[in-house]
Amino acid sequence: MEVSGNREQTYEEVVRGRRSIRGYLDKPVPRELIEEVLSIAMRSPSSMNTQPWHFHVITGEPLDRIRKGNTENILAGVPDSREFRRGEPFAGVHRERQIGVAKQLFGAMGIERDDKEKRQDWVLRGFRQFDAPVCVIVTYDKELGGSDDTAFDCGAVTTCLVNAAWSRGLGCVINSQGIMQSPVVREHAGIPDEQVIMKAVALGWPNEEFPANAVVSTRKSVDEAARFVGFD
Questions:
Q1: Which of 131, 175, 192, 139 is nearest to 20 (CA)?
Q2: Amino acid 6: pLDDT
Q3: How would you write 35-52 as a 3-class SS string?
């Protein structure tokens, strides 16, 4: 298999340098490179080595059909049919962080608070998988639906996927908009009935001129996130 990407990056450089990419070049991604990225990602740990994940890698006409169906449905007011549980709306500090990154993105894109047209266009970009040349749909077997470990494991492998992609010069953004119209996705991606659609990952070559791609979201400090017990 051909080796691709910048192998001069250390692990820390990949993790600290990675950004969520929401604007892509109109340039195909070779299947061999995606297979390389997935092979790295699947070294992710999983509960008792269950490896519950499946990847449906979509490009070209099938992806265009998903984009079209997603946007037509949302504009027609079709309720979302997301299959994986979404929980309650964010509140408190979690809502503040959500608003904070939205302000960063809208500021970078020059989208004013009262500009309904540009705001809707931004939302529709998500339903179009941000016009990325590739979409990876992450699913798991329905028989594992009662296990919280399964969701944890699929999240872990997805994190490994976006980091592996970054190490090879590719960008990603993990998103839910692209799978909220699940019948559309299931039909055009050929996803079996016995699998649950969990997440989508837009993937492709970053467009360095797209303003939102320069946004680096803030992170809380180690002091805020961690408690150390038993240390001197």
A1: 175
A2: 53
A3: HHHHHHHCCCCCHHHCCC
Positive/negative CA dihedral, 150, 217, 38, 138? positive
Contact predicate 70/182, CB 8 Å: no
In the numeric block, the tokens 């991604």 are attached to 29
Instruction: Give the tokens for residue 4.
Output: 């691709």
| pTM > 0.90: yes or no | yes
Q: How far is residue 1's CA from residue 190's CA, in Å, rounded to a whole number?
A: 27
3-state helix, strand, coil in the chain (%, to 5): 50, 15, 40
What type of residue is 208?
E
Q: Has residue 230 got a pLDDT over 50? A: yes
Query: 104-143 in b/e burial notation, b at 16+ Cβ within 10 A?
Result: bbbeebebeeeeeeebeebeebbbbbbebbbbbbbbbeee
pLDDT tens digit string along 34-47? 999 999 999 999 99
- Residue 10: count of CB within 10 angstroms of its CB: 10
| Joined tokens for residue 127 | 């339903």
Per-residue tokens: 62 = 């099938």
